[in-house]
């Protein structure tokens, strides 16, 4: 199936922007994984599955031999310059659409439209809910106007964006209640956020941080009123996440309440809880799942993760995403290992007689783009 | 080993009854997995591993070609009629004994004896503890007589039944204390259940719902006095279960207290926590495990689950079960994929030189029926 | 890679001592796994992956045919005598260094130097923190002198030992706070421990048991002042552990605080949470991981565990350990299955083109001994 799947253009339903600045070897290593360095005792970040994958698969895209040394790779990258490097990897990823989370910008990144241009694809925006709320407070909107202002901004966003995203996993954790919060609960949560905003302002950090169970839940329920997909960070992330609070099963009470609204819920990443996510995708009509971020980090092990996800997850509920951030290599490797992983799983089924070649082709189309196109109402690309 | 294992008759130590009514395609899809539908965005439930398995393996049993379309399959099924379909799949499963949980009957199902007749096997009864308690309350037995009445009914049941079952995982969760509750704790729990019974009656729903940690534990300890195996639902189920509260490790304190009684504890399903279950089967003398329900849902991935379960689980502690419910196909597919999975694991060991062919044959016999026969004291079938 | 890896001498960075007494078949079975018996219903402990591995791989070391029967194996073992059996298996393990946890001695065991002699390797000591605190209390050191005395003993230990170990997982669980406890918190914890010490003395059991979150944390922070690696029991153990409280992710808050100190943290065993541990090894600079204990218990499945660990764990952060205890066979099998597992993972990468043969050789050296040598500052063996 690999050749066939290589010909399919993918919808990358969750990614971030690409860095615009140039990177040296240290800078490159610092963006490869979810840590910036392994410290004095841990060795090089090139001695990881993703590090070897860069040397094996990305080097040829920059006209180097496979398995080029990290230093040669970094030098060639610098020679070509950030724009050319981004163009090569993004155009090589074979995408039709990118859904870009624009709410995490610790330094300048390419915007969705620029990403789309480099990729020869359409760039769409996903609005990060907590980011929106933090900005509302930082801009001085008072407690009594808070809920109204959030809804007004979501109204505006909903016209342009294809979806929303919650990072509750990084803050309060995913153990959210199911109920839509009451007006008084929302007001109390807004008051807490404003007090934090005042402290943040006094402390010079500027932005308050949403990390309140009620506030996360309020934002999710507001978003649910638009019917656009709501993405949740789940599982694997950097050292800021308490990963045991990011098990997707903790969302069960909320998923139970959201199901009747029909709003699609997109569980992102999920590793190492991807079997849990597969279960949720089976039993809740509106749950969709991926293994983004892990796919390129585990590299040649991607077939194992996809196979585990697809134990219970219906084939109509699984999406592709890279969760690429900063390095254009990650858009390329995410797509490459996803294609190889999916081909492996489908070929194995053909070989075992589990399904026919025709069914395998149909499923490949669903997972590569059809499911995302349906859930995000993306329409057919030109 | 596959040919040899295909010749072994299995003890299915946990299943439910088969529907007596006819099913159209929608009805069939609604019983394939742990959800009734994937909704407007999720596609067909035939686009799942179990869906493809029905088309591949069940179609020929109904005289269709492998990989028949879902519509053709549903049509042929309707032509043959429910009884003939049930007869073909149950007799094709190659069973010697079925231990049938008779406590979940949202609509009419075949009784154990009827199932046994269709399967050419012996049908045994397993009594669901919470169901028994709920009926006692609904029948108007008062608080002061409650505990006595439970024991009296268990006395009666214990003569006919081969085991008991707890669905604490679906209600309070598996985080049960270890201790046998005191008389005053039992009385307080009975009072809570009676109050709920009165509310249920007033609300028109008839039956109260046991969902109280003390009540679950009381029922388990009563059952333990009979020495018959006690089954626990663990892990994978429908969307009513909070699966993170159904991790078998949560039972550790109770298992520690039950071990000295010698009462066998049967951990059912376990997916995705089957490695946790395997560990418990190693360290607690009275714990037995299976990967039922998941086996047919993951279909051709069954060898992976069995291999993971058998990492730590001693070969004398692993059982076969289907957890089939409603569709006769599930008894057939559970047995089929279990046999293929077990053959795969044992063949791999022979190939690696891990064990001899003779040892593999001996282990196959234990897992196919010997362990269940020993734990349930089933004796040898005619 | 197997031949090459068989030529590498391993650092076993976590093991215990070997029994000095002779064992009959029952005694042998009782030390094979994490349980002493499977009881009347569970069959023989030789019917486990580890049991078959002893028959397959250990029998030839004792001049028997592969797959010798358990009785023949036990008889031959008795003929040779404990010392000769220990010599054969320890010298056959191919070790350069053993780091021996000397804090668990329910009966006489060989000391690190004696183990080293039999193995033709260097034996190092690892000091168990809770054991040290329990002895301080049992020896009558008062509450006001407690903290000072702990530090004085650690000062002494730190000269001889290569590391420390915490068994918090077996007592309070791994859900420890991150902060270094204050003087008043330490005093309160010491008071609780002394009260328990008095009760233990009165009850005739002699030693108090550290099982207090603050006390575990105090000991860890004291140890961290020496910069020597601190080992944590994680995951798989005997039935005394509440394994769901031994998930390494529960250590996240403490790891976050320990990272800036640079003290290496060694997560031991980790099964079935080894993917969680691999994640921690990626995102925290000072975290190192292994799959000890599980490696020989799962035997021929060791490649699967290592591959899962190495999904996210950087190759510079993974160590070898046996966690062998009591039976010399376990040092031998731990090393044997680790070598086979590592060879399998590296060969697969070469076959997939993920890395070159030269890189594979370099990684093998890191994981076999280089990473441990660096973290424990072991220097190069003679």
Task: Characterize the quaternary organization of these chains.
Answer: homotrimer
Q: End-to-end span of chain A in angstroms?
A: 25 Å
Which range does the strand content of chain A fall in? 5-15%
Write the CATH architecture name of the largest domain in chain A.
Alpha-Beta Barrel
Q: H/E series of chain A, N to C?
A: HEHHHHHEHEHHEHHEHEHEHHHH
Provide structural commentary.
3 copies of one chain form a homotrimer. Chain A has 382 residues and is an alpha/beta fold. Chain A has 2 domains: 301 residues, TIM Barrel; 58 residues, no CATH class. Chain A is 50% helix and 10% strand. In chain A, strands 1-2-3-4-5-6-7 form a 7-stranded parallel beta sheet. In chain A, α12 links the parallel β5 and β6. The model of chain A has no long low-confidence stretch (mean pLDDT 96). The interface between A and B is large, with 39 and 36 residues.
């Amino acid at each position: 199936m690999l050749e066939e799947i290589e010909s399919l253009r993918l919808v990358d339903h969750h990614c971030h922007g690409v860095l615009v600045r140039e990177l040296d070897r240290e800078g490159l290593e610092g963006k490869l994984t979810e840590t910036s360095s392994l410290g004095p005792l841990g060795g090089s970040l090139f001695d990881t599955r993703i590090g070897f994958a860069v040397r094996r698969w990305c080097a040829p895209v920059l006209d180097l031999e496979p398995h080029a040394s990290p230093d040669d790779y970094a030098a060639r990258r610098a020679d070509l310059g950030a724009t050319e490097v981004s163009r090569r990897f993004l155009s090589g990823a074979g995408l039709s659409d990118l859904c870009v989370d624009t709410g995490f910008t610790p330094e300048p990144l390419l915007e969705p439209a620029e990403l789309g241009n480099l990729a020869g694809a359409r760039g769409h925006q996903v609005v990060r809910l907590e980011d929106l709320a933090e900005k509302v407070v930082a801009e001085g909107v008072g407690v009594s106007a808070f809920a109204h202002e959030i809804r007004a901004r979501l109204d505006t966003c909903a016209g342009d964006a294809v979806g929303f995203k919650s990072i509750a996993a990084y803050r309060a954790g995913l153990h959210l209640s199911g109920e839509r919060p009451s007006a008084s609960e929302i007001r109390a949560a807004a008051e807490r956020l404003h007090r934090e905003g005042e402290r943040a302002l006094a402390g010079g950090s500027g932005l308050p941080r949403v990390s309140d169970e009620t506030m996360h839940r309020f934002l999710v329920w507001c978003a649910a009123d638009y019917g656009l997909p709501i993405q949740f960070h789940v599982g694997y992330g950097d050292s800021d996440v308490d990963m045991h609070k990011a098990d997707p099963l903790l969302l069960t009470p909320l998923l139970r309440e959201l199901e009747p609204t029909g709003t699609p819920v997109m569980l992102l990443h999920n590793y190492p809880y991807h079997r849990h996510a597969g279960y949720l995708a089976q039993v809740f009509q509106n749950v969709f799942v991926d293994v983004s971020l892990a796919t390129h980090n585990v590299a040649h092990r991607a077939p194992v993760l996809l196979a585990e996800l697809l134990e219970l997850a219906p084939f109509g509920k699984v999406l592709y995403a890279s969760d690429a951030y900063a390095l254009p290599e990650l858009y390329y490797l995410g797509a490459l290992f996803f294609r190889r992983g999916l081909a492996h799983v489908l070929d194995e089924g053909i070989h075992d007689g589990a399904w026919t070649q025709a069914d395998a082709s149909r499923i490949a189309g669903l997972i590569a783009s059809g499911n995302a196109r349906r859930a995000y109402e993306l329409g057919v690309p030109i």
